[in-house]
Design brief:
With about 250 residues, the protein is α/β, with parallel strands linked by helices. It has one domain: Vaccinia Virus protein VP39 (Rossmann fold, 3-Layer(aba) Sandwich), CATH 3.40.50.150. Helix content is about 35%, strand content about 20%. It has nine helices and eight strands. It has an eight-stranded mixed beta sheet with strand order 1-4-3-2-5-6-8-7, with helices on both faces. Strand 7 and strand 8 form a beta hairpin. Bound molecules: S-adenosylmethionine (SAM).
């Protein structure tokens, strides 16, 4: 079960909400019966089945294929994200669209008296996250990544891995991530990129699955516009890793 102390600390970071979030499932539930609108890909994330196979089979196979043969494996990817975020032991970290908490737990290895908060809309993913997370300095929230429920300038670092392409309003979500970061805060993203010279294929993927393929400068330019400096991008196959620091 997620540590109640971590949930209590998270309550202090939330924009006041009514009704009070319930914590019975082991995470703070801000959505109740409501769920953000869902594409086929998002509905899959809410199924009871996917969280059971996600971390061991689904993610390595699918994300691995999209990253291509030269892309980092899961361990290298986690190391890359931790390096991009340059975490300190007392940092407050937000993992947006945390799924079953795989990246959340990887980030928590750098944290001592800080806190890592995972937020996701899927109750089934979060149930798995709570099940697989030892009590300590990690806690989970069920909420909408496009409308983050945290007070401005709450976090030292924000990650959003393998999820921006699922959001119906990804640039609004990025603006929200910038809003909850403190000045000097770091961001690390992993998302899709468009198959070069294959516009119609990219559009078809989007239409059928709800997965958005981002142009090579779309995400980096968005971060620059939001006030990030030192924006960097690494490209592997049809995935891009993007990082930056809020001025
Ligand atoms: C592919 S998983 C990524 C999990 C993890 N971040 C990783 O890197 O493996 C995508 C997650 O995004 C979540 N998600 C999609 N749209 C969301 C939204 N609007 N708000 C919160 N979570 C969302 C899904 O529920 C799912 O758990």
């Amino acid at each position: 079960m997620s540590d109640l102390t971590a949930l209590d600390r998270i309550r202090g970071l939330l924009i006041p909400v009514l009704p009070e979030p319930i914590s019975d499932p082991g995470y703070l539930d801000l959505l109740g019966e409501a769920s953000p609108a869902g594409s086929p890909a998002q509905r899959l994330m809410r199924s009871g089945f996917l969280p059971r196979i996600y971390e061991r089979f689904w993610r390595p196979a699918l994300v691995g294929a999209v990253k291509g043969p030269l892309g980092p494996d899961t361990g290298q990817e986690e190391a890359l994200v931790r390096a991009m975020l340059a975490l300190g032991p007392a940092d407050l970290v937000l993992d947006v669209a945390c799924g079953p908490g795989n990246i959340t737990r990887a980030l928590a290895r750098d944290i001592d008296d800080g806190l890592v908060v995972g937020i996701d809309a899927s109750a089934t993913m979060l149930a798995r996250a709570v099940r697989d997370t030892a009590p300590g300095h990690i806690g989970y929230v069920r909420g909408d990544a496009v409308n983050l429920p945290f007070r401005p300038a709450s976090f030292d670092a924000v990650s959003c891995m393998a999820a921006l392409y699922l959001f119906d309003r990804p640039f609004e979500a990025l603006a929200g991530m910038a809003r909850v970061l403190r000045p000097g805060g770091r961001i690390a993203l992993m998302t899709t990129r468009r198959l070069p010279l294959a516009g119609p294929v990219n559009d078809l993927v989007g239409a059928v699955s709800g997965i958005r393929m981002f142009g090579d400068r779309e995400v980096t330019d968005a971060l620059t516009r939001l006030g990030f400096s030192g924006v960097r991008q690494k490209v592997y196959g049809l995935m891009q890793f993007v990082s930056g620091r809020l001025a």
